Amino acid sequence: MRKPWVTIALSGVLTLMGTVAVPIFPAQAGPYEQCLEGCGDAARACGGVGDDRDCSGPRSDCLAECGYLRGTNNTGNTGPVRYGALAYSQTMQGWATASEWADRASAENAALDSCRSLAAAATDCQIAVWFYNTCGSIAAAPGAIFGSGYGNPTHVAEGYALQSCRQAGGGDSCVVQKAVCTGL
């Protein structure tokens, strides 16, 4: 079994923290329900790009992936569900990741705790994206502009993160800061 990992970075400096002991709290909803909730997030992100794309395909793909959690979709991954999260501080313009956690709450808590450890001033840490058995990514631009995305393989997550950052006003200044995969 893989151990959970947390990564933090400030101004482009990467620090690997190793295994972090964070209490594991039971998830409020099961993985299937959390997945369905995430599909709505993905559809809103797709629709918010503003280029008149048809977002029904990505939502259908997402719902099909959720079916894996109920044993109704053959994704080729027969391992356990593993969660990851990326947190971002706009004031510090730094990010933190957490991966290989057993539930969403633990992954988010680990990412937030690591983000807050960037510096005492990092009081505005927020979850940029959470994901399970896939990859998540964050992209940023000067002026504390950022975007995030998830998908598999890594370049899909990075593409969504860049798209989200550009939509937030970062334009061509957006650069992928980090991508991390979990449960693959």
Please state the CA-atom Rg, rounded to the nearest Å.
16 Å
| SS-based class | alpha+beta
Helix content: 25-40%
The sequence of SSEs as H and E is EEHHEEHEEEHE
Spatial order of the strands forming the largest sheet: 2-1-4-3-5
The average pLDDT is: 73
Low-confidence stretches: 9-28, 68-75
Strand content: 25-35%
The total strand number stands at: 8
If helices are DSSP runs of H or I spanning 4 or more residues, what is the number of helices?
Answer: 4
* Distance between the ends: 12 Å
Instruction: Report the biggest beta sheet as strand number plus sense, adding barrel if it closes.
Output: 5 strands, antiparallel
Give the overall silhouette: globular
Report on this model:
With 184 residues, this protein is an alpha+beta fold. The chain has a domain at 5-18 and 29-133. It is built from four helices and eight strands, in the order E-E-H-H-E-E-H-E-E-E-H-E. The strands form two sheets. Strands 2-1-4-3-5 form a five-stranded antiparallel sheet, with helices on one face. Strands 7-6-8 form a three-stranded antiparallel sheet. A hairpin with a 3-residue loop joins strand 6 and strand 7 (145-151). The longest helix is centred in the N-terminal third of the chain and has 17 residues, at 31-47. It is globular and about 40 Å long.
